[in-house]
């Protein structure tokens, strides 16, 4: 029977072409939108993890309450011991210390007088440890525009846009004026070893990258760090595992019962990217929005295919009448129409998914440059947005494709039950 129905659809294109094109277009758009939405969310999560919170983050309880201000006076101490504990207990994550700081960047002239100044935000990362994940996280070698990466203490990297604004280049000396962990003034000279462009406007405009050991000396933070970040080896956010690690770590470092309110202020606490970045609500909205997209296409295609089914039923009025006249059951006719719709839905979904994946692949490889929109933005969002093909991308188009054709035919096919056998001879005679 299925072979018979398939041959009928192939030989009578007017019966299948319009529904097939409708399903093809709807599925292709669904796959494209899903891949671009997945890519945008993934890019934002990765950027936030790489440059801000990691996939999990350890800091003191006092620091966590004021994390937006980067209060280094509330930083972690005994970082080496804590890193050893984290690395041995949670081996599926890569751990690295960081210090976020701010200050004034002073560029001297040949006489040692101030030639240019600019406020900067800085990141102290582990640059000189061969096993540090920071080289991969920041992709420093590919991000270099001029000069080279730091090779010895006292060398730093700065954003290329900042370097152009201050008219400074590799080999020049720069002075960082900031405050130490204990609130006193710190004035430290550095040598600019190179300039970088990370493709994130907020960082390229005014970021300084230094080694964590240099900044520990400059900020009087021996064996200290503002935070310790954890990254998954595959560089994707696994929320369930991150939550497990966080719960286990916090269970091992509780505030002693009966302690005064501020007694646990400097005890370490861990949070996940979802909680630390403030993206919890945003990620929930994205999940709901993805479902709305699929739902809209299901409803829209169902309406179109319903109308197409009504038109097709009118055109096939005589055919259905003959089938009823020779004794075919109405229910059997109805189910054969549903079977035809499933075939059309499957073929259209298959073709639409293939076309959508082709467009998504191009977007994943080449991306879309939105740097002009983000040039004044402070968000940790990459200038180039890419689509992302996931396992769900291969399947998501079949849901609206099959469901819409089935619903459209199911609604329009009800008219079969309104046919009266007494009218058949009159219709056949005409």
Can you characterise this structure?
The chain is α+β, with helices and mostly antiparallel strands and 430 residues long. The chain contains 18 helices and 14 strands. It has helices at residues 2-11, 13-53, 61-65, 79-89, 134-138, 140-143, 160-166, 201-204, 212-218, 239-252, 273-276, 280-315, 317-325, 330-366, 371-374, 391-395, 398-412, 424-429, and strands spanning 56-60, 76-77, 93-108, 114-125, 144-147, 155-159, 173-179, 185-196, 207-211, 224-225, 227-232, 268-272, 368-369, 384-385. Strands 3-4-9-6-8-7 form a six-stranded mixed beta barrel. A hairpin with a 5-residue loop joins strand 3 and strand 4. Helix 1 packs across helix 14 (330-366) and helix 2 (13-53) packs antiparallel against helix 12. The longest helix is centred in the N-terminal third of the chain and has 41 residues, at 13-53. It is elongated. The two termini are 30 Å apart. The model has no long low-confidence stretch (mean pLDDT 80).
Proportion of residues in helical segments = 40-55%
Radius of gyration: 31 Å
Spatial strand order of the main sheet: 3-4-9-6-8-7
How would you sum up the global shape? elongated
> What proportion strand?
15-25%
Count of DSSP H/I helices: 18
């Amino acid at each position: 029977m299925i072979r018979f129905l398939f041959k009928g659809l192939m030989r009578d294109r007017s019966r299948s072409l319009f529904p097939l094109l409708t399903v093809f277009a709807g599925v292709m758009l669904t796959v494209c939108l899903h891949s671009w939405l997945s890519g945008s969310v993934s890019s934002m999560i990765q950027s936030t993890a790489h440059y801000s919170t990691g996939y999990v983050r350890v800091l003191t309880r006092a620091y966590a309450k004021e994390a937006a201000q980067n209060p280094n006076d509330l930083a972690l101490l005994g970082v080496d011991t804590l890193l050893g504990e984290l690395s041995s207990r949670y081996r599926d994550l890569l751990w690295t210390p960081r210090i976020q700081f701010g200050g004034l960047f002073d560029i001297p002239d040949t006489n040692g007088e101030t030639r240019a100044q600019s406020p900067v935000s800085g990141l102290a990362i582990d640059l000189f440890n061969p096993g540090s994940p920071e080289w991969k996280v920041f992709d420093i070698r590919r991000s270099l525009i001029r000069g080279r990466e730091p090779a010895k203490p006292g060398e730093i990297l700065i954003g290329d846009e900042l370097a152009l604004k201050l008219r400074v280049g590799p080999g020049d000396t720069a002075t960082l004026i900031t405050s130490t962990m204990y609130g006193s003034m710190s004035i430290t000279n550095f040598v600019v070893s190179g300039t970088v462009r990370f493709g994130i406007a907020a960082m390229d405009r005014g970021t300084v990258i230094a080694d964590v050991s240099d900044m520990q000396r400059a900020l009087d933070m021996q064996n200290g760090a503002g935070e310790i970040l954890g990254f998954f080896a595959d560089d994707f956010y696994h929320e369930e595992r991150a939550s497990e690690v966080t719960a286990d770590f916090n269970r091992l470092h509780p505030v002693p019962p009966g302690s005064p309110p501020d007694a646990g202020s400097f005890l370490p606490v861990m949070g996940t990217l979802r909680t630390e970045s403030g993206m919890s609500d945003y990620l929930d909205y994205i999940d709901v929005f993805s479902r709305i997209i699929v739902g809209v296409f299901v409803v829209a295609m169902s309406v179109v295919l319903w109308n197409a089914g009504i038109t097709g039923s009118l055109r096939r009025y005589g055919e259905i009448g003959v089938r009823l006249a020779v004794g075919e059951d109405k229910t059997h006719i109805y189910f054969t129409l549903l079977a035809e719709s499933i075939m059309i839905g499957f073929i259209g979904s298959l073709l639409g998914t293939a076309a959508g994946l082709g467009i998504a692949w191009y977007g994943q490889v080449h991306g879309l440059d939105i740097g002009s929109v983000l040039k004044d933005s402070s968000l940790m969002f990459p200038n180039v947005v890419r689509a992302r093909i996931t396992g769900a991308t291969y399947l998501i188009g079949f849901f609206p494709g099959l469901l819409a054709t089935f619903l459209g035919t199911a609604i329009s096919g009800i008219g079969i039950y309104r046919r009266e056998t007494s009218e058949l001879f009159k219709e056949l005679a005409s």
